[in-house]
Amino acid sequence: MTDDATARAAALLKDHRDSIDRLDAILVYTLGERFKRTQAVGRLKADHDLPASDPAREAQQIARLEDLATQADLDPEFAKKFLNFIIAEVIRHHQKHQS
Ligand SMILES: O=C(O)C(=O)C[C@]1(C(=O)O)C=C[C@@H](O)C=C1
C-alpha cells in the first residue's frame, strides 16, 4: 500500500473511532438515565409491597425491542440478550430496596 493510502486509512479509522466514542457516550448516558428511572420504580415497588419482577411487562418489552432491532438492522437475539441483562441488574437493585 502507498503512504497516501495508509494515511487515508488511518484518517478513516480515526473518524470511525471518534464516532464510536460519541455513540458509546450516548449509550452510557442513556443507561444512566434508565437506571435513575428504575431506581425510582424500585423504591415505589418496595413502598407498596409490589414484586421486584414483572414477567408480563418483560415479555412486552422484549417483543417490542425485537421488532425495533429488526427495523434498525440489529440482531434481535442480541437485543433480547442485552435487555435481559439490563433487566436482571434492575431486578437485583429492586431486591436490595426490599430487603
Ligand atoms: O417496569 C417495571 O416494573 C420495572 O421494575 C422495570 C423493569 C425494567 O427494567 O424495565 C425491571 C423489572 C421488571 O421485571 C420489568 C421491567
Range of helix content? over 70%
Number of helices: 3
**Mind summarizing the main beta sheet?**
none
> DSSP strand (E) fraction?
under 5%
H and E order? HHH
Number of domains: 1
Question: Which quaternary structure do these chains form?
Answer: single chain
CATH superfamily: Chorismate mutase
The rounded Rg comes to 20 Å
CATH architecture: Up-down Bundle
CATH topology: Chorismate Mutase Domain, subunit A
Number of strands: 0
* Mean of residue pLDDT values: 97
Distance between the termini: 63 Å
The coarse overall form would be elongated
Ligands in the structure? prephenic acid
- The low-confidence parts are none
Tell me the structural class.
Answer: mainly alpha
CATH level 1 name: Mainly Alpha
Would you kindly provide a brief summary of this structure?
It is built from three helices and no strands.
What does this structure look like?
This is chorismate mutase. The chain is mainly alpha-helical. Helices cover 86% and strands 0% of the residues. The radius of gyration is 20 Å and the shape is elongated. The termini are far apart. The model has no long low-confidence stretch (mean pLDDT 97). Bound molecules: prephenic acid. Prephenic acid (PRE) binds next to α1, α2 and α3.
Q: What keyword list fits this structure?
A:
single chain; 99 residues; mainly alpha; Chorismate Mutase Domain, subunit A; 0% strand; elongated; binds prephenic acid
Secondary structure blueprint with pairings:
Blueprint: H1 3-47, H2 55-71, H3 76-98
The structure holds prephenic acid.
Pfam families: CM_2
EC number: 5.4.99.5
Domain Chorismate mutase: 7-98
